[in-house]
Amino acid sequence: MTSSSGMYRILNDGTPPVGISYTRPAWQQVFLGGPVIGWAVRRVDSKVYSLDIGGYPYTGVVDGNLIATIQQEQEQDQDWLIQYQEAQDAYTITSSSDPSLCWTVESSDSAESIVTVKPLISTKSIPPQYLPSQLWRLESMVE
Question: 92: closest CA among 77, 105, 102?
């Protein structure tokens, strides 16, 4: 995935895709099972990507929650490091400004759980192992 830009579904193992609702306020939280699930992934730098969804040109963090927004504000607007974790055959998505913060499923038990941005947790092994709630799959929406 990380070599190209395109349209993707982003999923945590065994959960519905990450999305947003059809309503279009200035910003909204990102959650599992949202009806709008197509993410535009654009490469900014070698491992840095800009992610947008449903006509919201920016993603960011407000109060620890991942949001989609129409407003570009420095405190919340983010680009993301998308790194393949070969040992777990999945990706981590971390803040490009603070790579210790990672997209995290708040509760994998709920089909509509919000996506938060929390400290990345890994083992000190080689290769490191990451929490399942912080691992993502990116599926191309272009056949």
Answer: 102
